[in-house]
């Protein structure tokens, strides 16, 4: 990306308190975007991201909300409008990545994962649409997952949600093209990130089963670079696509 090519734009990154979401927020701000940082409850981490952006000369704010519910997603979009007055870029990154074998997978856990990943993307896009329509170069990037394409043990709920994002991306690309809004799905694979207790014990099974052709794992910054491209001026002719970024671990 060229320096400050997102100047004047406002970006909202859900689930941006740490890991890939954090890297995306910092990267978009580095290239000139004003950024709304979001998490469900990680206030300290969100505040750290905002301070990092501001200390580098950028503009940022954060809003805690549960985007799996209409009230939470609506309050997030409203807060973005109140702080920045507009919205040009929506990154649907928030996710819960738990491990549960199907026999013990409860309806509550199924709904919690689907609610955050898939319902959250729908709710945020739906609530943000009036603001995105007012932009002259709006973009939505949905963050998929490689295991939705390769399959993985003990992750039926996560795989179902991430697969749903691909269909949502294609549907929105059709519906929103009339407004000049691009919609793409970025699918990172085998990225070095910190995994908390909610993600289960250790890395998922497919991390050990799949190997990259490049002999290493990717970094959150490399994912952020691709997000920046997808919502930047050089990708305005690209919409409805599923883009894989995995070092050759999965060839689409």
Summarize, please.
With 252 residues, this protein is α/β, with parallel strands linked by helices.
Structural notes for this entry:
The protein is α/β, with parallel strands linked by helices and 252 residues long. The chain has a single domain (10-245), classed as Rossmann fold (3-Layer(aba) Sandwich), CATH 3.40.50.720. Helices cover 43% and strands 14% of the residues. It has helices spanning 19-30, 43-55, 70-84, 107-134, 147-150, 156-176, 205-209, 220-230, and strands at 10-13, 34-39, 60-64, 89-92, 139-143, 182-188, 242-245. It has a seven-stranded parallel sheet with strand order 3-2-1-4-5-6-7, sandwiched between helices. Mean pLDDT is 94; it is low at 197-201.
How is the topology of this model organized?
Elements: E1 10-13, H1 19-30, E2 34-39, H2 43-55, E3 60-64, H3 70-84, E4 89-92, H4 107-134, E5 139-143, H5 147-150, H6 156-176, E6 182-188, H7 205-209, H8 220-230, E7 242-245
Parallel strand pairs: 1-2, 1-4, 2-3, 4-5, 5-6, 6-7
Widest sheet: strand order?
3-2-1-4-5-6-7
Any idea how many domains? 1
CATH topology: Rossmann fold
Biggest sheet features: 7 strands, parallel
What order do the helices and strands follow? EHEHEHEHEHHEHHE
Shape: globular
Helix/strand/pairing category: alpha/beta
CATH class: Alpha Beta
Round the mean pLDDT to the nearest integer and report it.
94
* Number of helices, counting only DSSP H or I runs of 4 residues or more: 8
In the predicted model, the low-confidence regions spanning at least 5 consecutive residues are 197-201
CA-to-CA gap between the ends?
25 Å
Whole-angstrom Rg:
17 Å
The counted number of beta strands is 7
CATH homologous superfamily identity: NAD(P)-binding Rossmann-like Domain
């Amino acid at each position: 990306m060229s320096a400050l090519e997102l100047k004047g734009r406002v970006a909202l990154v859900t689930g941006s308190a740490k890991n890939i979401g954090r890297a995306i927020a910092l990267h978009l701000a580095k290239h000139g975007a004003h950024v709304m940082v979001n998490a469900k409850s990680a206030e300290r981490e969100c505040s750290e991201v905002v301070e990092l952006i501001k200390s580098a000369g950028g503009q940022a704010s954060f809003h805690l909300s549960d985007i799996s519910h209409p009230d939470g997603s609506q309050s997030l979009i409203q807060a973005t409008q109140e702080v920045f007055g507009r919205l040009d870029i929506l990154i649907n990154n928030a996710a819960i990545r738990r491990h549960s074998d199907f026999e013990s997978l409860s309806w509550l856990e199924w709904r919690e994962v689907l609610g955050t990943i898939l319902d959250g993307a729908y709710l945020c896009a739906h609530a943000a649409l009036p603001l995105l329509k007012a932009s002259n170069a709006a973009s939505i990037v949905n963050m998929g997952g490689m295991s939705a394409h390769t399959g993985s043990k003990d992750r039926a709920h996560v795989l179902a949600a991430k697969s749903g994002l691909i269909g949502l991306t294609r549907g929105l690309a059709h519906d929103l093209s009339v407004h000049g809004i691009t919609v793409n799905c970025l699918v990172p694979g085998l990225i070095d990130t910190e995994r908390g207790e909610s993600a289960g014990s250790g890395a998922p099974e497919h991390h050990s089963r799949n190997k990259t052709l490049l002999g290493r794992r990717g970094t959150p910054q490399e994912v952020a670079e691709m997000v920046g491209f997808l919502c930047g001026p050089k990708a305005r002719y690209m919409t409805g696509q599923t883009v894989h970024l995995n070092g050759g671990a999965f060839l689409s």
